[in-house]
Specification:
This protein is 21% helix and 26% strand. It is of the alpha+beta class. The protein has a 4-stranded mixed sheet with strand order 10-11-15-14. Bound molecules: zinc ion (2 copies).
Amino acid sequence: MADKRDYYEILGVSKTATESEIKSAFRKKAKECHPDLNPGDKAKEAQFKELNEAAEILSDPDKRAKYDQFGHAAFDPSMGGQDPFAGGGFGGFGDFGDILGQMFGGGFGGFGGGQTRNGPIPGDDLRYNLTITFEEAAFGAEKEITIPREETCETCHGTGAKPGTEPVTCKTCNGTGQVRTQQSTILGSFTSTRPCTACHGTGKIISDPCSDCRGAGRVRKNLKKKVKIPAGIDNGQSLCLRGMGSAGHRGGPNGDLYVTISVRPHRQFVRKGFDLYLEIPISYTTAALGGSLTVPTLKESVKYQVPAGTQTGSTFRLRDQGIQRLNANGKGDLLVTVNIEVPKHLNDEQKKLLEQFAETLGESAEGRSSKKSSFGRGSNGKK
Ligand SMILES: [Zn+2]
Ligand SMILES: [Zn+2]
């Protein structure tokens, strides 16, 4: 979620703003872009959503502290943080519901957790799992995905009524979506309200439903979408495509689409962060004498000079031969671990030369030759 704006910037407050400053900034800005006051304005809807999110995080001292420390990553589900909208949504945080209640006379539907059914309701967020290759993650890619989602019915433009007809105001509740009942008891009369059953709380009756969506106002369609995968993305990270989720109801904003990336492992390289790890064999002589080593990278092979006396298991760091840093400049490194290969089959001449070499080290040839070996002469050469 690298395209996310800074929460303080969204609210137009400083990093040291007090809680009441944050609330008053939110109140002022929410008035400008509230969807109820700007019906059909997608940009304002998105702005309002962004504003809600910023206010939710910054008005909660715990969440604010996390945000100050980790930024958006603290709440990015792919980073193992907490989804700010998991559990409750906007209705859950006390004060803001009140603020909006005052502002809009209590009829704050949709964003408030659905107390009223005839306000705008945001569309569902969608999730999609996309598997890509190791190279696609390293270099970036563009992939087309197909995902079923609810879209506004084009035939009726979301009203649910057959073209040429319109939903009519419910007579039972006079369009309020609620019915009041009065009960007389010994203690006096009580008035209670409950959702209207005739219109299911919507306030409208569709007498002639649209044949394409059967009155729902939305239809299920397959969305084909090209997704740009940024270079450096890693397994388990998500991309958020704002407004690409299901269509909202009654002018509510679209949900978002979260694309979670699975990266196939590479047959040679192992990735940790932006660094690559590789193990390659090296001959005994190259290790002992030093020499040029051909090291594969993700793009092409490079030469690396190993020093004389290289031990098995040694690791060399090749700077900037790793993976492009996600949304940043520079690359990680390539860490090459060399393993000395001991030859399995030697011809007579090679054996002879190695034995001569061993003698120069003061090692005895005794006990090495398999033909001469017998029990009781257990030592494998002394040092
Ligand atoms: Zn329709
Ligand atoms: Zn009704």
